[in-house]
Amino acid sequence: MPKVRYIFLWWILMVLSTGNTLAQGLMIRNYNVKDGLANATVYDAVQDKEGFIWFSTPTGVSKFDGKRFRNYSQKDGLTDNDVVKLAADSKGRVWFFTLNGLPSFFWNYTIHTSQNDSSLYVDARGQYMQYMFEDYAGFIWFLNTDNRIIQYSGKKTTYDKLGALRTNLFYFLRNDTIFKPRQSYFNLPNLEDANNPDQKIITACTFPLDQTTAQRVRKQPVIVVDNNLYIYNNKEAICFLRGSDWGIRDEISNICVDNDNLWIGTPRTLYYLKGFLRGEKKPVKLLENHYITSLLKDRDGNIWITTFGDGVYNIPYKNFYFNYLDNTNGLFSHSIFSIGKDPKTGLLLIGQNAGVLNTIDSNNRYQRFNLDTSSGRNSILAILPYKPNEMLIGADNGLYSFNTASQRPSLLKRVKTLKDVDISPGGKIRIAAKNQVICDDYIINKEDELITSIACINDSAYYVGTNAGLFYGSDGSRTLKVRTTRPALHLSIKDLKWINGKLWVGTADHGLYVFRGDNSLERHLSTADKLVSDICQQLYYDGIGRLYVATNKGVSVIDVNTENLIRNITSNDGLMSDDARGVYYQHGTLYIATSNGLSYFNDAKMPVDTVPPAIYLNHVRYGDSTYLPGKEFVLMYQRKASFEVEFGAIAYDLPELVEYQYNFSSDTSSGWITTMSNIVPFPDLQPDSYQLQIRARKYKSNWSQPVVINVTILPRWYQQWWARGIVILLGLILVAFVLRDVIRRIQRAEMRKTEYNRRIAELEAKALTNQMNPHFIFNSLNSVQHLIMEKEEKQALNFLADFATLMRQMLNNSRKSFISLEEEIAFLTRYIELEKIRFANVFTYHFLQQDDLKDYTIYIPPMIIQPIVENAIKHGLAPKNGSGRLEVKLVLREDMLYCSVDDDGIGWDRANEIKSGRLVKHESTALSVIRERLQIIKSFNGNVGKLEIIDKFKSGFGNKEGTLVEILIPIVKML
């Protein structure tokens, strides 16, 4: 958005009355090179069919949408950078007039010249185009500096269309039923048409214009001769303005007809003849010492003024509905604190700082009065009608009376830090000072709060607003108190108004409150209810049903009957500033005092622009490619590429407030996305068809009709169905190869497992031959023989039966890879019982089993504990003198079974000393078999077993003797 400079200019009325004359300000924007304009020297301006404003400069042309300039030069296709004139035809083409005489135009986002459009080829013969006309067939006709006619039919450009016969501008003007001029005025040295001797030339100018002449000025081309203006047709040329009669001494270079107004540009000044066609004679002199090169009124009513060296000036259409006063056109200061008007004389009073009071009478004469400023700044805060021909003025350090007939102020009462003043229906004056309420015959002090405002209910009662809440006072009590019917409003109050039995309270930061006469809250209005701001600075009631709330962000208008918001008025609508301090309304004119001057206007005619802006596409990008705008885009998919659309809206008033909405689907019910950005990116679009809709709206306008773009992203070859089929087929083949490899791996694993099982079987066979010591069998048989000889036949039979059962269990278990823990304990119990009989009950035994083992079915390798028990009995307990004890403990540790065999025999080291060589060899073999079996089990499930033999006497168990054997057995699941 180019930064806009606001320049306050004023006009001076031609007819002066006694005293000074009010000069009404006009707000003008300036655009220059820093805003993006191609050059500060601008020759011409034209608006095309879409609504863009084009400016021609010595360094190219600029296309403007109200916010951004797009500049074109020779590198963009112009035949020459020095473009001296512009014209737009009915087809939307913008023609560029250059000194080389080569025709060119902008159309469909492209500059067309003879280099890229053969229909524009022509030999200019050293001459350049001056004027352009269009006939009703759509053909374009040019008149060059050699008075030759060039025709462009759309297919061909023909030089010297009329042959060798030279012609002039009057040829086209005479045939106005055929040719339509593409400009509104023509500068000529004279009006003599040699080919039309019967034409009448009326040089006498009469003013005011009759209705017929005024209508002709609006419709027919105007001829400028020196500083006189004529309307022209093939029968007569009538002068309707003589420059000297209006104080225009310079040659008129350009004009613009704006409704009833006439704009005239000269090499030195711009003249604004307001109401000229209505018969008003109010010339306004603007932009003095500016060379005016062209004038343009756009479709919205905005006026564009191009200059030589000073850029482009723009007067928004709505500014013609407003009048402005500040320190540049008659007021003492731009900071206005209060405003009032005498209803009888119509005298307008404007209160400013430094005790300055400006008055403006009905004849637009103004005067300045200085009130007493000896004790401070003395800003004038309140102006109220008081008595006939008398206004009451409240200033910082006093209360004044102003006689509107004699226009003389007088001091009524000195008041320190006056804040507000109000007059009761019977004429009693109530003053709110910093910490006092001052009435006619008494004063109420309020030291602990800052008093800000006062409102009279009647002649004896009133409300007082403070920075800490709302209070009630009366002449009877002469005190300030809170009404007992409701709690006090504990808010900082800025202003109060009593209207039709209701109290309106404007607060410092909580909006507006309405209370009934019984002090109950009736309504609260805030920004949530569209109030322009919650910071209320002043309340003003116009007496006809409308309350004006002046805030730091503009003015809100409230209907006091319905208590609803009517509208908001801000700087966006034409105010000089949003910081509104006071309001006054009378006979349709609304006055608003701001910190930047006074704005006043006809309240009923305040313009509201509800027409949506024209939205346009600038360009489309996809990946690294840029495309011209269009409605259909078919693009090849690019991985991780962003589809980006840049667009804009044509809005010359408040372009910074234009907002956009877009929807990237055909279903608008899914919701529009709102943005202030004019670029919308869509990253990594997948192959598919999409529809993008974009719309825009201006300040207070409706949404425009959406621009629709259809986008198709085509898939790459590898995204086609046949390519995907090939990929799927290759994937299936790969999966088949992988599955075959997995199956082969499983088969090899099964083969290894079979081999492991075979080795385990071999080891188990070894363990079987080593576990049941032949001495056990031999000694058991001797024990049977001894029992028989002692005539203990029954005990001998029982022993043999148990021995047979034990042998049967041993043979059954030896055929299994795994047995349950219960089976293993049963086998060990029978084995130990036989050993007790064999060794004449020289020891006792005990099994300790963890309770958690009973909750699981646990499988372990068979006969892996029995060799350890056998060693404990045979080599630990049997050699011991006296009885011994054997304890077998079983505990579950995660995925392992902990087993300990504890005896109190002679100990491991001593047993080794007394063993025979045969016994040592047998024992070593048994233990090595157990360790190998544990290692083989690890190769199957990864769990590491453990076997440890501890001599208790040597290992820190005190004086205890014996051996402790610990083994961790992996719990192997059935395979």
Please provide a written account of the structure.
The protein has 975 residues and is of the alpha+beta class. Helices cover 17% and strands 39% of the residues. The chain contains nine helices and 72 strands. β51 (546-551) and β52 (554-559) form a beta hairpin. Residues 739-771 form a coiled coil. GO terms for molecular function: phosphorelay sensor kinase activity. The chain crosses the membrane at residues 721-743.
Describe the structure concisely:
This protein is α+β, with helices and mostly antiparallel strands. The strands form 17 sheets. It has a five-stranded antiparallel sheet, with no helix packed on it.
The second-level CATH architecture of the domain at 29-183 and 290-317 is 7 Propeller
Q: Which stretches are low in confidence, meaning pLDDT under 50 for 5 or more residues running?
A: 1-23, 918-923
Largest sheet report: 5 strands, antiparallel
Number of helices: 9
Distance between the termini: 80 Å
Average pLDDT level = 86
Number of strands: 72
State the strand order across the main sheet.
1-3-28-27-26
The top-level CATH class of the domain at 29-183 and 290-317 is Mainly Beta
